[in-house]
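Homework-ish question, so no full write-ups if that breaks the rules, but can someone show me the predicted structure for this set?
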Amino acid sequence: MAVLLATSCVKPAPRESVEKSPNVAPSIHKTKATPIVTVPKVTANTAKEEHRPSVPPIEIKVDPKLPKVSIIIDDVGLRRDALDVFWAINSLRKRLTWAIIPGTPHGSSLAKELHAQGETILFHIPMEPMDAKWMTASLEPYLLVSDDADKIRTKLTQRLAQLPADITKDIKGLSNHQGSRFSTNSKAMSTLMSTLKKHELFYVDSRTTADTVAESLAIQNKVPFARRHVFLDNVPEVPVIMVQLKELTQRALKTGAAIAIGHPYPQTASALAIWIQENRNILQVVPVQHLVSTP
Ligand SMILES: [Zn+2]
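A: Not a homework solution, just the prediction itself:
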Protein backbone atom coordinates (compact mmCIF):
# COMPACT_ATOMS: atom_id res chain seq x y z
CA MET A 1 0.00 0.00 0.00
CA ALA A 2 1.40 3.35 -0.96
CA VAL A 3 0.34 6.53 0.76
CA LEU A 4 1.69 9.77 -0.57
CA LEU A 5 2.54 12.05 2.29
CA ALA A 6 2.22 15.81 2.17
CA THR A 7 5.60 17.40 1.63
CA SER A 8 5.02 21.00 2.64
CA CYS A 9 4.84 22.90 5.91
CA VAL A 10 7.60 21.01 7.64
CA LYS A 11 9.34 22.93 10.35
CA PRO A 12 13.12 22.94 10.12
CA ALA A 13 14.45 20.08 12.20
CA PRO A 14 15.96 21.05 15.53
CA ARG A 15 19.35 19.92 14.32
CA GLU A 16 21.48 20.32 17.38
CA SER A 17 19.20 18.69 19.87
CA VAL A 18 18.92 15.64 17.67
CA GLU A 19 22.50 15.25 16.66
CA LYS A 20 24.76 16.08 19.51
CA SER A 21 26.23 12.97 21.00
CA PRO A 22 23.91 12.61 24.06
CA ASN A 23 21.27 11.50 21.58
CA VAL A 24 22.92 8.14 21.11
CA ALA A 25 23.55 7.50 24.77
CA PRO A 26 20.11 8.01 26.29
CA SER A 27 20.74 9.19 29.81
CA ILE A 28 17.69 7.45 31.17
CA HIS A 29 18.92 7.51 34.73
CA LYS A 30 19.94 11.13 34.59
CA THR A 31 16.64 12.57 33.38
CA LYS A 32 14.47 14.00 36.11
CA ALA A 33 11.11 13.68 34.39
CA THR A 34 8.52 11.75 36.36
CA PRO A 35 6.06 9.84 34.20
CA ILE A 36 2.49 10.84 35.00
CA VAL A 37 1.27 7.30 34.52
CA THR A 38 3.05 4.18 35.54
CA VAL A 39 3.85 1.70 32.85
CA PRO A 40 3.64 -1.73 34.49
CA LYS A 41 7.08 -2.81 35.61
CA VAL A 42 8.35 -5.67 33.51
CA THR A 43 11.15 -7.83 34.81
CA ALA A 44 13.39 -9.83 32.54
CA ASN A 45 11.62 -13.07 33.46
CA THR A 46 8.02 -11.96 33.24
CA ALA A 47 8.92 -10.16 30.05
CA LYS A 48 9.97 -13.42 28.46
CA GLU A 49 7.36 -15.72 29.95
CA GLU A 50 4.24 -13.61 30.26
CA HIS A 51 4.52 -10.40 28.32
CA ARG A 52 6.32 -11.75 25.31
CA PRO A 53 4.63 -14.95 24.24
CA SER A 54 6.26 -16.35 21.15
CA VAL A 55 4.07 -15.52 18.19
CA PRO A 56 4.73 -15.85 14.50
CA PRO A 57 5.20 -12.58 12.59
CA ILE A 58 1.81 -11.59 11.21
CA GLU A 59 0.64 -8.50 9.40
CA ILE A 60 -1.57 -6.23 11.45
CA LYS A 61 -5.00 -5.43 10.09
CA VAL A 62 -4.98 -1.97 8.54
CA ASP A 63 -8.28 -0.11 8.56
CA PRO A 64 -8.34 2.03 5.39
CA LYS A 65 -10.86 4.46 6.92
CA LEU A 66 -8.72 5.65 9.84
CA PRO A 67 -5.86 8.19 9.62
CA LYS A 68 -2.48 6.49 10.06
CA VAL A 69 0.43 7.26 12.35
CA SER A 70 3.84 5.60 12.46
CA ILE A 71 6.15 5.82 15.44
CA ILE A 72 9.78 4.92 14.94
CA ILE A 73 11.89 4.22 18.03
CA ASP A 74 15.46 5.21 17.10
CA ASP A 75 18.89 4.22 18.36
CA VAL A 76 17.91 0.72 19.44
CA GLY A 77 20.85 -1.53 20.39
CA LEU A 78 22.70 0.60 22.90
CA ARG A 79 20.98 -0.66 26.06
CA ARG A 80 19.76 -4.15 26.83
CA ASP A 81 16.77 -3.20 28.98
CA ALA A 82 15.65 -0.15 27.06
CA LEU A 83 12.65 -1.77 25.39
CA ASP A 84 11.09 -3.45 28.42
CA VAL A 85 8.84 -0.51 29.25
CA PHE A 86 7.41 -0.60 25.72
CA TRP A 87 6.45 -4.29 25.88
CA ALA A 88 3.89 -3.46 28.55
CA ILE A 89 1.81 -1.39 26.10
CA ASN A 90 -0.21 -4.19 24.58
CA SER A 91 -2.13 -1.99 22.19
CA LEU A 92 1.12 -1.03 20.44
CA ARG A 93 2.34 -4.59 19.84
CA LYS A 94 3.42 -5.02 16.22
CA ARG A 95 2.57 -1.37 15.55
CA LEU A 96 5.79 0.44 16.41
CA THR A 97 8.89 0.48 14.20
CA TRP A 98 12.29 -0.21 15.76
CA ALA A 99 15.34 1.44 14.19
CA ILE A 100 18.34 -0.68 15.18
CA ILE A 101 21.94 0.47 14.72
CA PRO A 102 23.76 -2.66 13.49
CA GLY A 103 27.01 -3.27 15.35
CA THR A 104 25.82 -1.83 18.67
CA PRO A 105 26.34 -4.01 21.78
CA HIS A 106 22.70 -5.23 21.91
CA GLY A 107 21.67 -4.64 18.29
CA SER A 108 21.64 -8.29 17.23
CA SER A 109 20.04 -9.74 20.37
CA LEU A 110 17.28 -7.13 20.38
CA ALA A 111 16.78 -7.67 16.64
CA LYS A 112 16.23 -11.38 17.32
CA GLU A 113 13.71 -10.66 20.09
CA LEU A 114 11.82 -8.08 18.07
CA HIS A 115 11.81 -10.26 14.97
CA ALA A 116 10.50 -13.24 16.96
CA GLN A 117 7.61 -11.06 18.14
CA GLY A 118 6.68 -10.01 14.62
CA GLU A 119 7.80 -6.42 15.20
CA THR A 120 9.00 -4.18 12.37
CA ILE A 121 12.72 -3.38 12.24
CA LEU A 122 14.61 -0.73 10.26
CA PHE A 123 18.35 -0.46 9.72
CA HIS A 124 19.42 2.79 11.44
CA ILE A 125 22.68 3.88 9.84
CA PRO A 126 25.11 6.52 11.23
CA MET A 127 25.75 9.28 8.69
CA GLU A 128 27.95 12.35 8.97
CA PRO A 129 26.48 15.24 10.99
CA MET A 130 27.24 18.89 10.30
CA ASP A 131 29.75 19.02 13.13
CA ALA A 132 32.22 16.11 13.34
CA LYS A 133 32.36 16.37 17.13
CA TRP A 134 28.75 15.18 17.34
CA MET A 135 29.86 11.77 16.02
CA THR A 136 30.07 8.94 18.56
CA ALA A 137 33.30 6.93 18.41
CA SER A 138 31.57 3.65 19.25
CA LEU A 139 29.25 4.03 16.25
CA GLU A 140 32.06 4.38 13.69
CA PRO A 141 32.33 4.08 10.78
CA TYR A 142 29.86 6.80 9.77
CA LEU A 143 29.03 7.30 6.09
CA LEU A 144 30.95 10.46 5.15
CA VAL A 145 30.58 12.94 2.30
CA SER A 146 34.34 12.57 1.68
CA ASP A 147 33.87 8.83 0.96
CA ASP A 148 33.86 7.89 -2.72
CA ALA A 149 30.97 5.83 -4.08
CA ASP A 150 32.77 2.51 -3.59
CA LYS A 151 33.55 3.31 0.01
CA ILE A 152 29.95 4.30 0.80
CA ARG A 153 28.68 1.08 -0.80
CA THR A 154 31.23 -1.05 1.07
CA LYS A 155 30.63 0.61 4.44
CA LEU A 156 26.88 0.31 4.05
CA THR A 157 26.95 -3.32 2.94
CA GLN A 158 29.25 -4.22 5.82
CA ARG A 159 27.01 -2.39 8.29
CA LEU A 160 23.89 -4.21 7.05
CA ALA A 161 25.71 -7.54 7.50
CA GLN A 162 26.17 -6.80 11.22
CA LEU A 163 22.64 -8.01 11.95
CA PRO A 164 21.88 -11.76 11.60
CA ALA A 165 21.08 -12.78 8.02
CA ASP A 166 17.86 -14.62 8.94
CA ILE A 167 16.55 -11.31 10.29
CA THR A 168 17.90 -8.94 7.65
CA LYS A 169 16.00 -10.85 4.97
CA ASP A 170 12.83 -9.46 6.58
CA ILE A 171 14.05 -5.87 7.04
CA LYS A 172 12.61 -3.71 4.30
CA GLY A 173 13.84 -0.22 5.14
CA LEU A 174 16.63 2.02 6.41
CA SER A 175 16.78 5.37 8.17
CA ASN A 176 19.57 7.82 8.95
CA HIS A 177 21.14 8.29 12.37
CA GLN A 178 22.26 11.94 12.51
CA GLY A 179 23.37 12.77 8.94
CA SER A 180 22.72 16.50 8.77
CA ARG A 181 25.79 16.90 6.53
CA PHE A 182 25.50 13.64 4.61
CA SER A 183 21.84 14.08 3.69
CA THR A 184 22.45 17.49 2.09
CA ASN A 185 25.10 16.11 -0.29
CA SER A 186 23.60 15.05 -3.63
CA LYS A 187 26.52 12.89 -4.71
CA ALA A 188 26.68 10.96 -1.44
CA MET A 189 22.90 10.58 -1.24
CA SER A 190 22.73 9.41 -4.84
CA THR A 191 25.19 6.61 -4.03
CA LEU A 192 23.21 5.77 -0.92
CA MET A 193 19.92 5.60 -2.85
CA SER A 194 21.33 3.46 -5.68
CA THR A 195 22.70 1.05 -3.04
CA LEU A 196 19.30 0.92 -1.31
CA LYS A 197 17.70 0.19 -4.67
CA LYS A 198 20.06 -2.74 -5.11
CA HIS A 199 19.23 -4.07 -1.64
CA GLU A 200 15.49 -3.44 -2.24
CA LEU A 201 15.21 -1.23 0.84
CA PHE A 202 12.98 1.81 1.31
CA TYR A 203 14.33 4.97 2.92
CA VAL A 204 12.91 6.89 5.88
CA ASP A 205 14.40 10.37 6.08
CA SER A 206 14.82 11.27 9.76
CA ARG A 207 15.13 14.90 8.55
CA THR A 208 17.92 15.92 10.88
CA THR A 209 18.29 18.92 8.58
CA ALA A 210 15.71 20.93 6.65
CA ASP A 211 18.18 20.99 3.72
CA THR A 212 17.99 17.25 3.09
CA VAL A 213 17.97 16.13 -0.55
CA ALA A 214 16.83 12.60 0.29
CA GLU A 215 13.38 12.81 -1.22
CA SER A 216 14.37 13.99 -4.70
CA LEU A 217 17.19 11.43 -4.90
CA ALA A 218 14.88 8.67 -3.69
CA ILE A 219 12.47 9.57 -6.48
CA GLN A 220 15.31 9.70 -9.05
CA ASN A 221 16.53 6.27 -7.97
CA LYS A 222 13.01 4.84 -7.63
CA VAL A 223 13.52 4.09 -3.94
CA PRO A 224 10.29 3.96 -1.88
CA PHE A 225 10.38 6.84 0.57
CA ALA A 226 8.89 8.25 3.78
CA ARG A 227 9.81 11.14 6.03
CA ARG A 228 9.66 12.06 9.67
CA HIS A 229 7.24 14.84 10.61
CA VAL A 230 7.54 15.13 14.39
CA PHE A 231 10.32 14.44 16.91
CA LEU A 232 8.72 13.21 20.12
CA ASP A 233 11.32 13.36 22.85
CA ASN A 234 14.06 15.92 22.23
CA VAL A 235 12.95 16.99 25.69
CA PRO A 236 12.44 13.63 27.46
CA GLU A 237 9.62 14.72 29.77
CA VAL A 238 6.14 13.21 29.59
CA PRO A 239 4.19 16.51 29.37
CA VAL A 240 6.44 17.73 26.54
CA ILE A 241 6.17 14.41 24.69
CA MET A 242 2.35 14.64 25.03
CA VAL A 243 2.45 18.00 23.25
CA GLN A 244 4.50 16.47 20.43
CA LEU A 245 2.06 13.55 20.19
CA LYS A 246 -0.79 16.02 19.93
CA GLU A 247 0.95 17.69 17.00
CA LEU A 248 1.40 14.26 15.41
CA THR A 249 -2.29 13.44 15.92
CA GLN A 250 -3.45 16.74 14.44
CA ARG A 251 -1.22 16.27 11.43
CA ALA A 252 -2.52 12.73 10.84
CA LEU A 253 -6.14 13.83 11.17
CA LYS A 254 -5.52 16.65 8.69
CA THR A 255 -3.44 14.85 6.06
CA GLY A 256 -4.31 11.19 6.62
CA ALA A 257 -0.85 10.09 7.75
CA ALA A 258 2.10 11.26 9.86
CA ILE A 259 5.39 9.85 11.09
CA ALA A 260 7.15 10.48 14.41
CA ILE A 261 10.56 9.54 15.77
CA GLY A 262 11.18 8.88 19.44
CA HIS A 263 13.80 7.09 21.52
CA PRO A 264 13.72 4.15 23.93
CA TYR A 265 13.17 6.29 27.01
CA PRO A 266 10.72 5.28 29.76
CA GLN A 267 9.15 8.75 29.49
CA THR A 268 8.40 8.11 25.81
CA ALA A 269 6.76 4.77 26.64
CA SER A 270 4.67 6.42 29.39
CA ALA A 271 3.48 9.17 27.06
CA LEU A 272 2.66 6.67 24.29
CA ALA A 273 0.60 4.58 26.74
CA ILE A 274 -1.57 7.57 27.63
CA TRP A 275 -1.80 8.84 24.06
CA ILE A 276 -2.82 5.53 22.47
CA GLN A 277 -5.52 5.07 25.08
CA GLU A 278 -6.97 8.49 24.27
CA ASN A 279 -6.73 8.24 20.50
CA ARG A 280 -7.25 4.62 19.57
CA ASN A 281 -10.68 5.24 18.08
CA ILE A 282 -9.68 8.11 15.82
CA LEU A 283 -6.41 6.91 14.35
CA GLN A 284 -4.39 3.80 13.76
CA VAL A 285 -0.74 3.20 14.59
CA VAL A 286 0.94 1.17 11.85
CA PRO A 287 4.53 0.12 11.11
CA VAL A 288 6.23 2.61 8.84
CA GLN A 289 6.19 0.46 5.70
CA HIS A 290 2.46 1.24 5.46
CA LEU A 291 3.26 4.93 4.98
CA VAL A 292 6.02 4.61 2.41
CA SER A 293 5.29 6.09 -1.00
CA THR A 294 6.54 4.25 -4.05
CA PRO A 295 7.87 6.45 -6.88
ZN1 LIG B 1 19.51 7.93 15.62
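Now go work out the reasoning yourself. Hint: The longest helix spans residues 238-255.
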